[in-house]
Design a protein that fits this description.
It is a single chain. With 96 residues, the chain is an alpha+beta fold. It has a domain of 65 residues. A hairpin with a 2-residue loop joins strand 2 and strand 3. It is built from three helices and three strands. The chain has a three-stranded antiparallel β-sheet with strand order 1-3-2.
């Protein structure tokens, strides 16, 4: 049997303290590339899209995906270099 009803609202996502710390260090060193870790390439993709809220100003975190992506394109550079085993070194820099 099925029931037709609206799904519950999404709970607000909490920010990862790891990524908040990374963003603080990057913004203190504007324009400098930093190796932030070795992850699957999807991590770089999701950071570029603005999925990781720590990289966004608070007012954009609940905004439309297009605004998040635009902000990321204007203020951050993210690149990944394959290290094998479906992992990449992720490099990020804050443009300001």
């Amino acid at each position: 049997m099925i029931e037709f009803k609206e799904p519950p609202s999404k709970p607000a996502r909490s920010l990862s303290t790891k990524w908040v710390s990374v963003v603080e260090l990057l913004t203190e060193n504007r324009g400098e590339w930093a190796l932030v870790g070795n992850y699957t390439p999807a991590v770089a993709h999701f950071i570029r899209r603005g999925t990781y809220g720590a990289f966004l100003p608070e007012e954009l975190r609940s905004g439309p995906d297009s605004a998040k992506k635009l902000y990321m394109d204007l203020h951050w550079e993210i690149t990944a270099r394959s290290t094998g085993d479906n992992h990449s070194d992720i490099y990020i820099r804050w443009l300001g």
